[in-house]
Amino acid sequence: MSKPEKIVAIKGMNDILPQDAPLWELFENTTETILKSYGYQKIVTPIVEQTALFSRAIGAVTDIVEKEMYSFEDSMNGDQLTLRPEGTASVVRAVLEHNLVYDGPRRLWYKGPMFRHERPQRGRYRQFFQFGAEAIGFSGPDIDAEMIMMSRRLWDDLGLQNVRLELNSIGNAEERNRHRADLIAYLEKHEDILDAEAKRRLHSNPLRILDTKNPAMQEMVNAAPRLLDYLGEESLAHFNGVKALLDKNAVQYTVNPRLVRGLDYYNRTVFEWVTDELGAQGTICAGGRYDPLIETFGGKPTPAVGFAMGMERIIELMKGLGEPAEPNVCDVYMVHQGEEAQLQSFILAERIRDAGLDVVLHCATPTGAGSFKSQMKKADGSGAAFAVIIGQDEIANNAAQVKTMRGEVGEQQQAAVPFEEVVDYLVDQIVGSHDHGHDHDHVHYHP
């Protein structure tokens, strides 16, 4: 019989392995804590949505809709479905469907996998994880500034360096239309300089040409009409309000007139947090205002602003700070030998868990249960504070051996503790001396 062919992961869809988990947990816990401190509530939306949701929200003439979405027909009922490529459209759909802003504005946050069929590169994958926040029902520049300051707090709390803020305003639809007409006319005069991608976008999405990375086009693009010069009184007042709040809170930023959005639903404030440490893909967080989107979905005109960040890119930056200290797998490791000892270990392990401690019970492998020596090696590797040891002698004496594992060799102690007293003994030792509190969420870096 031939050996079965090995199945590997789909290109661009990666596993997150146990050794990587501490960094992910540090990022997720820090982000959730900050979002909660600003009054944001969690929302969870499905991974699969109707294709029309994204084509209407993002715009049919965009790279995402044209080339990157994982779309398919449901063979059961013929529905056109898509794996979500971003989070905002799904959140807005849920807000409308469940009438969440009926009693006032909402601050919401989400996290989860998104899917785009693009070329995998550092920190950018076909299945990627995204954290996002959406503030729906707020119209002033204050919420825009809050979003930016909230993300800055995350970089500070994570200890990230060399992350800078770029800011712009893309006004409203009327202002963009006037700018668009002049921009197309300008670009047509320089059509000989445009690359194939720019020529394709010339009439469908000319704003995106301003964001080109093609060196041959930079001088021409720098001299193009600036959208900022087309802003009316209201848009300018809003933008100046955002800048004033950031200035008062010592948030440094650069106004980048070429910072635009390829998605149709953005207006007014747009911002990005960027770094030079990830190569060409330097944006780690992008956001902005999208007041027209909810009306596009059939809702009442409702102002909104949000941001999203790719978790993989931020994890890449965090790796440069050193590895986070490895969290303990458990508080207690149960070591046992013999059938009766195994039964007693199961009973004790459950009682210890009932008391709020984490317990790993040694279980057999294909090579057997393992000697006391090999089990103690496993106990040491688990990071447990204590090993509870039960063998035939312990069964006979109705008492377990409880060994401290974390001190220096000379400080390690071992005590015979009656089975009925083991739980209280461990709780006193762990909770009392280390203020355990059953909290493994705080992870720290070490170089």
TrEMBL record:
Main location: cytoplasm
Family statement: Belongs to the class-II aminoacyl-tRNA synthetase family.
GO biological process, one term: histidyl-tRNA aminoacylation
Domain Aminoacyl-transfer RNA synthetases class-II family profile per the UniProt entry, residue ranges: 1-327
Top-level taxon of the source organism: Bacteria
NCBIfam families (UniProt xref): hisS (TIGR00442)
GO cellular component: cytoplasm
Keywords tagged on the record: Aminoacyl-tRNA synthetase, ATP-binding, Cytoplasm, Ligase, Nucleotide-binding, Protein biosynthesis
Pfam families named in the record: HGTP_anticodon, tRNA-synt_His
Binding site for L-histidine: 86-88, 116, 130, 134, 261, 265-266
UniProt-listed InterPro entries: aa-tRNA-synth_II, aa-tRNA-synth_II/BPL/LPL, Anticodon-bd, Anticodon-bd_dom_sf, His-tRNA-ligase, HisRS-like_core, HisRS/HisZ, HisRS_anticodon
CDD domains, sorted: HisRS-like_core, HisRS_anticodon
Plastid as UniProt keyword: no
UniProt protein name: Histidine--tRNA ligase
Keyword Iron annotated: no
Subunit structure: Homodimer.
